[in-house]
Amino acid sequence: MSLRLDRQTLFLAAINGIVLVAGAFLAGRGFLDSYNLQSMAAQVPELGLLALGVMLAMVSGNGGIDLSGIALANLAGIVAFGIARTLVPVADDPLLFSWTFAALALVIGLAGGFLNGMIIAYAGLTPLIATLGTQLLFTGLAIYLTNGSAVGMGYIEPLDDFGNLPVFGIPLCFALFLVIAAALGFSLIYTRFGVQLMLLGSNAKAARYGGINERRMLLVTYTICGVLASVAGIIIAARNSSVKWDYGSSYVLIAILIAVLGGVKPEGGHGKVICVLLASTALQILSSLFNFMNISNFFRDLAWGLLLLMLLASARVNLGIWLKPSR
Amino acid sequence: MSDAISVSGASDQQRSLGRRLWDILGARPELFTLMLVVATCVVVIIANPDFLQMSNLVDILRASVVRGLFAMGVLVVLAAGGIDVSFTAIAAFVMYALTMLVINVAPDMPLVAILVIAAAGGAGLGALNGLLVHKLSAPSLIVTIGTQYVYRSFLLTFVGTALFMNIPAAMDNLGKASLYTHVSSNGVASALPATVLVLAVAALVTWFILERTLMGRAIFAVGGNPQIAERLGIKLFTVRVFVFAYAGLLAGVAGVVHVASNRLANPFDLAGMELEIIAAVVLGGARITGGSGSVIGTLLGVLLITLVSNVLIFVGIPSTLQLFIVGLFILIAGTIFTLRNRG
Questions:
Q1: Is residue A25 part of a domain?
Q2: What's B259's domain CATH number?
Q3: From the list B136, B320, B328, which residue is nearest A143 (CB)?
Q4: Is the CB of residue A66 less than 8 Å from the CB of residue A226?
Q5: Least CA distance to A149: which residue of chain B?
Q6: Which of B323, B326, B332, B341 to mutate: most A Cβ within 10 Å?
Q7: Is the residue at A298 inside a domain?
Q8: pLDDT for B280-301, tens place per residue?
Q9: A118 in contact with B at a CB cutoff of 8 Å?
Q10: What is chain B's mean pLDDT, rounded?
Q11: Does some domain include residue A80?
């Protein structure tokens, strides 16, 4: 069991390595210098956090999915900026402002995730319909609040540093992403919550007979998804110095792609944080490589679509026969 | 004693009245959609009687045609327990590639030929969806996300990105043709577009397939429970390829109608509409988990979505709230339908 899972992690790590080396050959030495590596790392967290949310929803089983992630991320940024601006004057105390902004965004994410969880666990809607509805709800609210245009935040030093400044060579937002991923990975493997979630996802009936409170589990899971989305919202705001309702509109689909690429089973009960993390870095490196080589965005999307289909196909084809050492 | 009986009898009767209403709603979820449509209309008319003009009604019908065609396809896929998010990409692909083909190769191609090619092309791409969904045995949402990316970006990478401002004559005529022209007292002429006929035909055919053919039976059976359907001797592969091909076929036709009524072929058009269409079908009472759904309910769902996106301005609600209200409707309808199923 553990050997097989390790192989999957190794496989994704190897893909990361191969793409990096290929980048060095195809795009020149500049691809591997610290500046480019840092800029790639700083772009990972937004999508990575959303993909972790999708993973949690998928792991919980019963057609679990979260389509509302990026909508909630943008809404959290917009509402938090709107409120924080009236509470704390930016010019006087930018540090306090940044913390207020972050705290408010987390509260919005918590509330949005809680709403998803209530609708799915207690009203009994299918996750797909529930998060489709809340996606429109969150996006609609964001459009209403901003009249559909971007809201510039201006240069706020602590927030901007958080989005772009490397400390000991690692961008702060990437470090935060690693910490969150580590905490999530730990809790999925070693805590009661994680074990129960895996059981619920792989066999809901057995979990119910085993005394697991299914509704509370779902509520907690989707609330965590909401919080992850709001952290992504904070990072988006910090990196762009503005908030907008339709930022990253293609992220809904790419987050799902990353989760599937990371070996999360859409039918539930299986998923590893480390693999999703490696999948998100692999996709980012590949995306940067395309940029370096001046390949059009349309072609990149084509590659993503084919990649997703090929991954699904590879899950059907048993490669074990070819990988086993022959005697 | 007799008092107690009569009291309990009365409350039984009362409860049975409420229960009967609830049961009717259970059997005919589209009644709830109709209630939402009527409620929206009443609110709008009270707020602004100007809404009741022929030109507005015609506008709403016109705006419903492409949505309605998409929704018929999505209904059939949902009824079979699948979901399709690639149909807008199929429509964009077919409409753009076909317009390019007709202009460059056969500028005089008659409308019938154009529609047949569009339907065939759409059906082909749709069948590929069905094939992949079946062979990869993965959730159809994820498979069609993949094909959506592939179809759309293949179009933009390899076919072209420039607009066609001068569309072929046959398409142009379809867009201009009107069934009936109404001239109101203030001299405003409003024409009921002939494209409404396309939707009417599609709705009738869809109704016939779902309610009067063996394939329709098979679709609902597969949507209800694929394992049992398979044991009954229904070929899952055939049903899956059929429903996705049918959705693709309608998407291809919808693409041509879209070009005809906009007098413009823009490969970037129609993107991002898919969730709104799925919302309309779900509002119409189709269960997302399959096995249910009706043509009339779906048409009402489309009407509701079109109403919300077209008439908010009449009530003085800022149009920026449009998505919010659609989202709210979905959650309310979803909750009601779920409660009804549980009861």
A1: no
A2: 1.10.3470
A3: B320
A4: no
A5: B320
A6: B323
A7: no
A8: 998 888 877 777 888 999 999 9
A9: no
A10: 85
A11: yes
Q: Which residues contact B320 (CB under 8 A, 6 or more apart)?
A: A140, A143, A144, A147, A148
- A209 in reach of chain B (CB within 8 A): no
Q: How many domains does chain B have?
A: 1
Instruction: Provide the pLDDT for residue B7.
Output: 45
What's the pLDDT tens digit per position in A4-28? Answer: 556 778 888 888 888 888 888 887 7
Look at residue A192 and tell me if it is in a domain: yes
Whole-number Å distance between alpha carbons of B307 and B37: 8
B142:A266 CB<8 A: yes
Specify the amino acid at residue B291: G
Task: Please name the residue of chain A whose CA is at the shortest distance from the CA of residue B318.
Answer: A144
Q: Is A129 on the interface with B (CB under 8 A)?
A: yes
Minimum distance, in Å, between the CA of residue B38 and any CA atom of chain A: 21
* Ordered DSSP codes for B63-97: HHHHHHHHHHHHHHHHHTT-----HHHHHHHHHHH
Residue B131, domain extent: 32-338
Tell me how many domains chain A contains. 1
CB–CB contacts below 8 A, A to B: 140
Put simply, the chain A residues between 66 and 85 with a CB less than 8 A from any chain B CB are 67
Domain that holds residue A166: 51-278
pLDDT exceeds cutoff 50 at B9: no
Residue B47: pLDDT band with limits 50, 70, 90: confident
- Provide mean pLDDT across the span A188-213: 87
3-state secondary structure labels for all residues of B248-288: HHHHHHHHHHHHHHHCCECCCCCCCCHHHHHHHHHHCCCCC
Q: Is A299 on the interface with B (CB under 8 A)?
A: yes
